[in-house]
Each structure stands twice: as C-alpha cells, then as structure tokens.
Amino acid sequence: MKNKFYALHLHCAIGPRRDPWLGSLETDASVIAYRDSYLRAYHSCYGPNTSAVLRGEGGLVADLHNNFNRVSFDAAPELMAWLETHKPRVYRKLIEADHSQQREHGHGGALAVPHPPLILPLASRADKRTAIRWGIDDFRIRFERNPEGMWLPENAIDEETCEALIEEGIRFTLITRTQAARVRPLGSGDDDWTEVLPERLDPRRPYRWNSRERPGSWLALFVYRGDLTPNKMLAQNANADDDAVAVDGCQGFANKLVDSLTANDAAELAHLAMDAELFGLVHPYGERALAFTLDLLEREAPARLTNYASFLDLFPPPQEISLKSVSARSCSHGLERWRGICDCRNPQAPDRSPAWRGPLRAALEKISRGAADAIETLLRELTRKKLASLDAAGPLLFSHDADRVESFLAAAARRHPVPQEAQRLLRAVEIRRASLAGLNHWTWQGEDAASTEAAQALLEAARTIDVLALEMPERAAELEVDLLKDLAEVPVEGRSDAAEMYRRLSRPRRVDVRQAAVHAAISAAIAERAPQLPELAAPHLKTNTRLLCRRDKPDREGSTTVSFFEVSAQDLKIYCAFEGLAVVIDSGGVSIECWLGRVGSPESTASDLERLFVEKGPQALRTAVADLPDSQSWGLDGLLGESKRAAVRKFAVRRDPDANDDAEELDQSREALAAHAAVFSETPSADSLAALVGLLETARASGSQFNVWEIRELGRSGLARAQSPLPDEGKKALLSLLSLAEESIAREERWSPVN
C-alpha cells in the first residue's frame, strides 16, 4: 500500500531533583538499589534503550540497537543536562539518533519541551512565553537545529498555548483524542463544524488549529490513541519463561498499531505516544520488547517508518480542529489535578484528600507573581523589555560559560552593563528560574503535599526569596511572610501544615558563598583523615584555599589540630563572592569547628592566631576568632552535599539507620565496572580483557547487580575494535558472561564510547 506510515513516540522525563542552591542531586534514600532516581532511570530505561538486545539462535545476543534511532522522542532539559554531565556517552547517542533521522527522513525525530515543564494553560502568557523560549533555546544548543515540534507537559493545551507555540515557530504538537471538541474540512464554513466523540476522531492524519491572533498561521496537532498501550506486551515480555511468549506479545502490539491503516492509497499514519519509562523502569527488560517490536514493524508492517515532522511535510492536515477550552491527557476534569479537587491521580486511595492542591498552587503562584513584579522593578532602567528580557536566558539554565553570559547580557541590556548591572541581571535570571520551577507539573504528581515533588517546589520558593533578598531584602522578607501564611493553609500528611514543612526543609539547605568557603576549608583540613571525601558537585560554585599554617597541640583527650586558610568562593550564577580567613579546629571524630572572618591580611592574622593557640590553647583561640570582623562558626554541618554525608558516616560513632549506604556502594561498584569496560573498549588488549573478565566473574559469583547492558555494549565494542588478536580463552569468557553471540561483534558500529 502507498502512503502508509507508522511512528512511535517516547516521552522522556524525570521529576526535578536538583538542589536549588548547589545545582546537583543528592542521595535519595527512598530509591531502592540506586543512589537517586536519575541513576535508577538511567540504568533501567534510558541507557538500555540506547543499547537494546535482539536475540538470535540459542538465546544469545545477536545485535544491539539504539531504539531512539527508530522513534520520535522528547527529552526534558533537566534530564538532558544530567546525561550530558554524568553519562555523556548515552547523551551523545540521543543526539545522534536525532541526526540519524535527519539523514534518513529529512527531519529530526526529537521534540523540544518547555522549561520548566509548566501546565501551560494555567500559566500567564508571559510565563508561557518564557518556558517555551527556554525550552527552544536548550533544544537548539543540544541538537544544533531549531525544533519543529514541542511536547507539552501532560499534553495540557488551550488556545492561548497554541498561539504561544505558533509565535515561537513551533509547527506541531501532540494531544490525545479526548482533548478535541470539533472538526471540519479545511475551507468550509461555520455550519460545517462537527462535534466528535474521542472514539470517532480519526488519529491517522494531523489536524490544523488556525490562529486567531495571526490569520493564516496554524499549528498541526497529531492526535494519538489512548486506547492502545504496550502494557500487555511488556508484562508478557517481563514474565515470559521463553522467547516465544515474548515474541507473541510484541507481534500482537505491532499488529494492533498498524491494523488501523486502511487497504487503499490514502495517506495515513499509525502512531502512538508513550512514556519512555514503561520500557525498562516500569516493566523490566521493556527495551528488549520495544527493540523487537520495532524490528518486526520494519520487516513485516505494510507501512514505512517515519517521524512527525517528515509526515507533516508530505501530507499537510486535511481538516481543521477546535479544542476543548482546557484539557490534558491525564485529567478527565480539565486541569483540576493541578489546581483543584479530583480523583484522577489515585482513585483507589480515597483517604488521601486532594484538598492540598489548590492552596499550594495559590501559594506558589503568589510567589511567582511577586518575583515577577520585583524583577520589573529591578530591571526598569537596565533593559527595554524588563521581565521579557529574561526570555533570552535559556542558554544559562544549565551552564554559566563566559561566552553564554556575555551573549545574554548583550541581548538583554540596553547598553553594555557595568559589573553591578550585570550582577543584577544574572540574579534576576535566577529569581525568574526558581519562581517558575516550583510551578512545574511534577509538584502535583504525588499523593499529598509531603511528596518529594512538592518538597522540591518549596525549596525553589526558598531559593527565590534568598536571591531576591540580595537585591531587595525588604521585599523578599515580605514575600516570605506572605508565603508562610499561605502555606499554613496547605494540609500536609503527618505534619501540621506546609509552612512547618517549608521551615524544616529550607533551613539546612540554604547555602551562600560563605558556606561554600567553609566547605572548602573543612574539606582541606580533614583531607588526611578523610582522603576519599566526595568533591562538591556544584558547577557554579568556585572555591580556592591556600594553607597558611597548621599546628598540633596535645591535650588530655588526644590532640587538637588547627589549620589556617586563606579562602575565596564565588557563585557564578548570582555573582556573589567572599574572601577571608578560615580557621579550622579539629579535635578528632566529629568535633570540628570552622570559623570564618573577613580580615585585611589573612597571613598576618593567621600568624597572630597561631601564636595565641600555641601559647594559650584552643579556648583562647576560639575567643579570638569570634572577635574577627564578620565572624561566624560552623561544625561538620558546614560541609555541603555528599561530602557532609560521607564525613558524618566516616566519623560518627553511630550510623544513620536510614542511610542509603548499600545503594551508594552498589553504584560505586557499577561505576568501577563500567570504567574497566570503557578502558577495554578504548584500548582492547589481553590485560584489559583479563581485568574486565575477572571483575565480571567476581560480580556474578557474589550475586551483585550490575549494569549488564552497558558492559555488554562496551565489551562488544572492544572485541570489534581490537587491532591484534585477543586470547581465545578470555574472548570466549567475555562472550559467555555477556551472553553475546560471536556474530554480534561484526555488527558493531565503530564509534568511540566515552564513559
């Protein structure tokens, strides 16, 4: 049949987990077997889908496929930024998947995503524009092209959202059949509108939504089916004792997808959008089922593989569509799941009241509006567009590269800004980012206001207030007072209210450049007795320490060591800096104090304090450093991020029973194994092969869970790349350990993986 096509779309996203002050993820004790939810999703889903198994005879792996090469997909900027930093090999494979589709279909398969991922119909026009532009800028930097399509969070849509997408040059988006109201043939009159039931709406061609603000402009809407899901196939695949059952499930799903195509030459697209995490995270080994389904479709389907942009070019919409006033894919009550009371989230848990949703949204929206008003005041004389000038800050969301900062300042300011003006502009960007971040759709994903997602939103509100306080302290204080009043109206499971939760969460998290300097000083002071303390993962915080002198003094309980440092710290995101003297008093165990003060000459002050310590002891030193200008002290809690947890675990007599130590050790083992596999992949030799085989045999003998998909891919690459013969015994052992068929080596694409 001519003009028949099929496409599958994967929606890739994880809820935001970055510490708003540090910009990094911390260990999440609620995640089983992994350090955090991002690592779990990476090892269970996103990584395996770039190296999915296709089995051959005897159940051995005959080939590995990057599933993203053959699907349309979107990936949230938060996820892409994490992959770029922590898992660059998989990050590059997503980028290359888009480029591969450009070569094959003339259009890339990746779609942009608004950032933050707001429920756009609930956002103001200004907030819509910011989120869409930031998402487009992030996409453009990563994929090196302008996006043609945009995935809307929860497919939430209204007419103003469509207008905003058209304004930014987006050609199409996706919705479900339940979100349409009426359709009519192009060029027909008002009397030709036909109301449609979801099951009667034809999803095989896109529809045109015509702009009212820009006559002649339109947005294409691809309407995907909600009645077709891969769940049955995936359950069969995960529970199958033999491949025949799994194959049968994949065949059934593939058939259902293309069965909607008619036996004629009319242009039709059989397509479906799904959450990527179904394929591996929700259903174990789901990436294998997807790979086999895609392989079946390619070999047997009476249609050709395409992506949305390519199909739209070939076959423009033949009908016009009218939308419901507001709608989303996962709420049958419009948008009440994110602002009111409905049972869409979990109808099986009637004891969990949704009464918290509305008050929490009202509180967070009030903070966002207050922040926007403050930004208008801050930028009144500095920029032409005030708040809208920050729409150009998309490239700064995950990087503060000097060139990006200069480009933003040039685009946003009326004139070349002096340092103080540049500082104000960059702080305004962070205020804007944090105030919008709390309104992302994940905030309402949990069952109550005590969820991890809601807690993240409260931290973003605190960050908004902290940065605003640097420029407008009185206004920031007023906003926080109002916020606490509003949060007192938000019920929280197991606690009095969200105001108490806000105080408890934000107090220990709030970090400034002084504490960054403290962290650097304590880390340097205890380096000898804690040599493997993790480095601070805060890309925008830069610190420097210079040891001026160190002294030990015996006492009744052992000895006290005092270290004197000249320290400096910079926050490149909000342009704050500190320089001064740090005095670290280490009495052993967890008894560590760090005093920080601003002094004119750190060297001479340190010399005087050192003499005092030698002559009169630690208590006299404490009294003296307390009198330093702007002096303040911290204990071991002055350490930040994972360093604090690691130091407490090392020095504390009693261990935290809730600590996620086993998961961290398992992650470290996975990383070590992947590092050895990467060495073998890059420089295959008898020695690197023997080392990898030895580690794999040890892991298997101990019953350890390890990242088989990653080691298999790197191992196959090394075997294929070897320039000189490898020992047969080692080669056979590696093939056996990874269940690789020997013929799979010949299919290896010769790229250079970097761990």
Query: Into how many domains do the coordinates divide?
Result: 4
Estimate the strand proportion. 5-15%
Distance between the ends: 45 Å
Please give the radius of gyration in angstroms.
29 Å
Largest sheet entry: 6 strands, mixed
CATH architecture of the largest domain: Alpha-Beta Barrel
Rough outline: globular
Quickly give the structural class.
alpha/beta
Overall CATH class of the largest domain: Alpha Beta
Give the low-pLDDT segments.
Answer: 748-755
| Share of helix, binned | 40-55%
The averaged pLDDT comes out at 91
Number of strands: 18
Count of helical stretches: 23
Spatial ordering of strands, largest sheet: 6-10-9-13-7-8
CATH topology label of the largest domain:
7-stranded beta/alpha barrel
Concise synopsis of the structure shown:
The chain has 755 residues and is an alpha/beta fold.
Can you give a write-up of this model?
- It is a single chain.
- The chain is α/β, with parallel strands linked by helices and 755 residues long.
- It has 4 domains: 4-323, Alpha-Beta Barrel (7-stranded beta/alpha barrel), CATH 3.20.110.20; 353-509, no CATH class; 513-639, no CATH class; 661-747.
- The chain is 43% helix and 15% strand.
- Strands 6-10-9-13-7-8 form a 6-stranded mixed sheet, with helices on both faces. Strands 1, 4, 5, 11 and 12 form a 5-stranded parallel sheet that branches.
- A hairpin with a 2-residue loop joins strand 14 and strand 15 (558-571).
- Helix 10 (357-378) packs antiparallel against helix 14, helix 13 (452-471) packs across helix 15 (498-509) and helix 20 (661-682) runs antiparallel to helix 21 (686-702).
- The longest helix is centred in the middle third of the chain and has 22 residues, at 357-378.
- The radius of gyration is 29 Å and the shape is globular.
- Residues 748-755 have low confidence and may be disordered.
